[in-house]
Amino acid sequence: MKTQFYILLSLKTPRGFVDYGQYFFGDDRGTAYELFGQLKGHQNLKDSCLLHIDLMETVDELPVKVKTICCTLEELAYNCKLIAREVFRLKNLEEME
Predict the structure, then answer these.
(1) What global pTM score does this model have?
(2) Of 4, 35, 96, 97, which residue is most buried, by most CB within 10 angstroms?
């Protein structure tokens, strides 16, 4: 089984966190960790934090949360742009191989 990496976006509701988006990176651990390290946000998770970004890994087809940051709406906008640019770059590099 291949290990797959993805970023999961979630937001806080009165009933808890709800997932609303995912960005898939494939099986490159180094790329996934490097990109996640570039994201803006805070590792200190507080109850007042409404937006979470999780680095996820599938192990034996089961999702495992590796790291989580919380961010503001402005940081989320920056992060989504950064993630989209990196996914675009990675997918185009795959096409060239």
Answers:
(1) 0.87
(2) 35
Tens digits of residue pLDDT in 10-52: 999 999 999 999 998 888 899 999 999 999 999 988 878 899 9
How many CA atoms within 13 Å lie on the side-chain side of 70?
A: 12
- The two tokens of residue 12 are 């806080």
Q: In sequence order, what DSSP letters do the residues of 38-84 get, joined into one string?
A: HS-SBSS--TT--EEEEEEEEETTEEEEEEEEEE-HHHHHHHHHHHH
Q: Report the pLDDT value the prediction gives residue 83, as an integer from 0 to 100.
A: 94
Distance CA 56, CA 21 (A): 12
Query: Which of 69, 72, 65 has its CA nearest to residue 42?
Result: 69
